[in-house]
Amino acid sequence: MNGKAATRGEAHLSTRTRLERGRTALGPALELVHTGRAPTRAVLTAELGVTRATAGAVAAELEALGLIRIDAKPSAAAGSQGRPSHRLAVAEAGPVALAAQVHADGFRAALVGLGGHIVATAPGCETIDADPAQVLGSVIEAGAQLLRETGRRCVGAGLAVPSAVAEPEGTALNPLHLAWPAGAQVREIFADCVRDAGIEGPTFTGNDVNLAALAEHRHGAGRGARDLLCVATGHRGVGGALVLDGKLHTGSSGLALEVGHLTVRPEGRPCYCGSRGCLDVETDPLAFLTAMGVEPGPEGLLQQARRLLAEHYAEPVVRTAAEELIDRLGLGLAGLVNILNPDRIILGGLHRALLEADPERLRAVVADRSLWGRSGGVPILACTLDHNSLVGAAELAWQPVLDDPLGALG
Amino acid sequence: MNGKAATRGEAHLSTRTRLERGRTALGPALELVHTGRAPTRAVLTAELGVTRATAGAVAAELEALGLIRIDAKPSAAAGSQGRPSHRLAVAEAGPVALAAQVHADGFRAALVGLGGHIVATAPGCETIDADPAQVLGSVIEAGAQLLRETGRRCVGAGLAVPSAVAEPEGTALNPLHLAWPAGAQVREIFADCVRDAGIEGPTFTGNDVNLAALAEHRHGAGRGARDLLCVATGHRGVGGALVLDGKLHTGSSGLALEVGHLTVRPEGRPCYCGSRGCLDVETDPLAFLTAMGVEPGPEGLLQQARRLLAEHYAEPVVRTAAEELIDRLGLGLAGLVNILNPDRIILGGLHRALLEADPERLRAVVADRSLWGRSGGVPILACTLDHNSLVGAAELAWQPVLDDPLGALG
DNA sequence: TGACTTTGTGCCGCTACTAAACAAAACCAC
DNA sequence: GTGGTTTTGTTTAGTAGCGGCACAAAGTCA
């Protein structure tokens, strides 16, 4: 390479980074509207810490990109003085992200707009093939159908799987109750399926509990939290996730928050990890059924456990079993509080049902067993979003647009 | 307040934020020189992702601020082509941070320049008064003396204490073996002492293990790690710290990484936390002495444990006790790996000595008991810096300068 | 009806960059 | 040596994003 070529190459790189930068307040502004924290340009001005002129220009540019809508008519807030402001909202017919989820009961596809709004859903089938390519092909086919029906532009696609996803390979290490091979290249397979379906935009894959936590942080019970811990149990096993400063903490190889093997009952039942009394085997739906002396029925472990808890909580055997699980869960959460010191905890699946059955008991155990817990106590909440893993998968696909709207769409 | 005053107030705020911002590449550039990652302007150019013109201007400005030095004579790297570059280094007689540390054996004060270089040290006394104000007053007096002797400008002061520090109050919750009252307002007291001594600049207070981790991340065994976990034990109890993306993770109220109460031996000895077999009471120096059947001597638990380990490792009773502790420590670290998934682990105090006694055994236990650990294994290293808590305390004081050199010094 | 409050806009200028050409200082090959 | 190549540093010109400021708009309150 001669000197001229080197100079040109360098110049090209610089040009690209410049174009990719765009107006730097654009991304933060879109994120504020996306998470519902900027209902007007005046609030946007304050939240961004810029002048009104800049906030106005930024909002206008986002509107021109088709991402947000600025009301033509001003609307005064009740009991407010001064000039009424024009409301900001996400655009009605703007672009969408394609979200896909695979779980024990089947799969699901949806289109998710800004603000975490689910625009359209495809029910998906009820059984899961042993071949990931087969399943993901079907899911994407359903998603592509939704895109054709609605005619919306697609910014990218995200997939939620019930498995730890190793970084940076994107392999599913333990696809729980999916009959998929451990170590399946889900990220690569998903990307191939999306490309083959002719859908544009980048693709992303993540663990379902991680993505649920991300969704709850942006649009659900986790809004405003700085250090958010989520713990959830589906049919078997326990999943955890941590959102720090608005970003998922997945660890250096994507395997963080494997919280299932905290010891919560030293003399408890043996766990496949080699230890005893792990959170995983002591607080999942099967543990609940076992504690009640109930045989697993045909309806699914989680459904059965939730139903018994809701309908028969008055019966001593159910109540005792629930309290046992609450105490063990509390012990596990206290351990996590000592290590992570979150400012909010959100529970999903059966753990959510246990919280709702006796919130005081759970909070008391966590406060009692966490260091310095007596002098405060972390808020423990139930998750609030429907299909939060699906919305979280869409968040991944939206992220490039939130980081740099002009670069991703212009 | 009338309209004009409101406009003026707003204008003042905006002006200040503008002045505080300065050249935005200035901070990152200083950090690169500070951590030794930018030996020349050419490297600085590449690391910052800016043009040579910008990197040159930024370096010139940092030199004008008296923070870095640009060699007058170019020096060619061995076996390199092209024009030789001028070396960059931290300024020799530039400003310093005042660092203070309180521990069981006394206290220490030092001046620390950019690059984590200790410029001057005051030995400090050997006993600790029960009154924090008394101790911190003495330590600051020693530091002020150093400042007078050297005549260096001071950018701020940092204090490391062997206790959890609650945020945002800055109280020491468990000042271990200091005979200080739990809940002492150390941050406030320290700030008062610094102000009373006529030392300018902001003040900071943090836990000693946290600060050691920060120092190791910037200047020691943790350089280049993205998710760095540090675990250390002094005389009693175990401390932990986590550095994520170059920033300390202290949790929402400063109490994160209280790793001492992970269960590592279900039928172990009772712990003051109410549980049994906690890492705290199973892997500290006292546990080691107890396992060997040795009575604590007059030299201090840590010193005694380290000496026995170093001098008598060949004796079966010492070796067996060490292996027991290594196994328990490995179990605790594996638990942390499952939750945090760090890409590096650094050990200090007796834990460091245990690692160095039998590194293979410790690594094997961690790999065996962490999920998916067999297919990789986290690097486990000994800490490398002398006085890393002291250097870490200085890092706190340097941080405002690293964030915005012009705003902090101009 | 006017005074006040808040929101939104147009214009000007500053500043931290990029772009591009030039200059300098080493190496190599002949 | 001499010239070409590679890398580093500098100069000059230009620009994008944002702050400062004055003004306009649209409501409430007395």
Structure description:
- Two copies of one chain form a homodimer.
- Chain A has 410 residues and is α/β, with parallel strands linked by helices.
- The first copy, chain A, has three domains: 81 residues, Orthogonal Bundle (Arc Repressor Mutant, subunit A); 136 residues, ATPase, nucleotide binding domain (Nucleotidyltransferase, domain 5, 2-Layer Sandwich), CATH 3.30.420.40; 162 residues, Nucleotidyltransferase, domain 5.
- In chain A, 44% of the residues lie in helices and 16% in strands.
- Chain A has a five-stranded mixed β-sheet, sandwiched between helices. Chain A has a five-stranded mixed β-sheet with strand order 12-11-10-13-14.
- At the A-B interface, helix 11 of A face helix 11 of B.
- The first copy, chain A, binds a DNA duplex (30 and 30 nucleotides) through helix 1, helix 3 and helix 4.
Gist?
With 410 residues, chain A is α/β, with parallel strands linked by helices. Chain A is built from 15 helices and 14 strands. The first copy, chain A, folds into three domains: 3-75 and 83-90, Orthogonal Bundle (Arc Repressor Mutant, subunit A), CATH 1.10.10.10; 96-211 and 390-409, Nucleotidyltransferase, domain 5 (2-Layer Sandwich); 221-382, 2-Layer Sandwich (Nucleotidyltransferase, domain 5).
